Amino acid sequence: MYVVGIDTSSVWIIVPAFNEAQVIGDVVADLRAVFAHVVCVNDGSRDDTAEVALRAGAHVVSHPVNLGQGAAIQTGVEYARRQPGAAVFATFDADGQHRVKDVVSMMERLSRGDVDIVIGTRFAGSAISHTPPLKRLILRAAAWLSPSSRRLGLTDAHNGLRVFDKTIADHLNLTMSGMSHASEFVTLIDENRWRVAEEPVEILYTEYSLSKGQPLLNGVNIVFDGFLRGRMRR
Amino acid sequence: MNWIQVLLIVAVVTLLVYLLRSRTNARAKAWVKVGYVLFVLAAVYAILRPDDTTVVANWLGVDRGTDLLFYALVIAFVFTTMSTYLRFKELELRYARLARTIALEGARTPES
Q1: Could you tell me which residues come within 8 angstroms of residue B100 by beta carbon, excluding any fewer than 6 positions away?
Q2: B34 and B86 within one domain
Q3: B87 to chain A: which residues are within 8 Å by CB?
Q4: Does B96 touch chain A (CB under 8 A)?
Q5: What structural domains does chain A harbor?
Q6: CB-CB: which of A54, A78, A232 is closest to B108?
Q7: With bands split at pLDDT 50, 70 and 90, how would you rate the model's confidence at A93?
Q8: B28 touches chain A (CB under 8 A)
C-alpha cells in the first residue's frame, strides 16, 4: 500500500506506552488502518497495555521495569531499525493526543527529500491547537530556552510527533530516560547537523490525555537535565 | 589529651584501615587512598593542635579555624552530592540499556 508516494510497508510507527490499556487499542488500530508496522514499547506497565496492543496488531516490546518515555522511544527505534526494509520512522504518543493524518502530512513533507526529520508543532501556521494558556507559555519558554531549538528555529520543544529517516534512526542514541529526551532529541539534531523542518499538527487535548500529561513543574527538571547533559559520559 | 581527640583519631584511623582494605577497581581507587592518607595525616594534626587551624584560617582571611573547616566541609559536601548525582545518572543509563536488551530479546510480533 502507498500513502503520499511512500510504501507503507517501509514505515514503522513507534508508540511508547505506560499504563495506557484504556486507549492503546484504539490508537494502534487507527495507526494500523494506514500503516502496516506499529511497535508499541510497553514501558513496564502494570495494566495489560501489552496484551491490548498486541491484539490490536502491534509488535510489542516490553521493558521489564519502568524506565521513562525517552528510554522507550530509544528501544522502539532500536527494534524498528533492525527490521528488514524499514526506511521511515515515526514517534507517536500512546494517549490518543495525536492524529494519524498529521503523520501522513509529515511523511509527505519528509518525502520531498530536503530534510531528514520532520517535527510536529502546535504553534506554527494556522493549525493552532487549543493548548491551555499556561502550558502554551511554558512550552514556548522551553523552546526559547534551548540554544539548539533557537538555532534550528523550532517553535515546539516537546511535541511527541516526529517523522524521520533511516540515517537518524541508525544514529539515534537517547540517553535521557525520562521526559528530557525531547530536548535531547533537538540537541542531537543540532549536533549531527540533521536537516529538520516543522509541520503544523493538531493536539487533541482530551480529558484523558490531559490527565496523563506531564506536570508543568517537570519543565524545571528538563532544563536542569539539559545543563547536565554535557557533563555525562556516553 | 582530651577524650574527644582520642575518639576523633580512632575514628579517622579506623576509616583509613577500612578504606585501604577494600580493593575494588584498582587504579581509580588508588588515588582515593592516597588522598585519604593525606587527609588522615592532616586530620590527626588538626585534632592534636586545633589552634593551628586558626593560624591557617587567618592566612586566608578567616577568623576561626572552625569556620575554615566548616567552609571546606560545605564545598566537599556539594562536590560529593554532584558526583553522586552524575554517577547515578550513569548507572541509570546502563540499567536502561540492560533492560532494553532484555526487552528486545522478548519482543512479540502480532500473528497476522
Answers
A1: A63, A67, A71, A74, A75, A78
A2: no
A3: none
A4: yes
A5: 2-229 (3.90.550.10)
A6: A54
A7: very high
A8: no
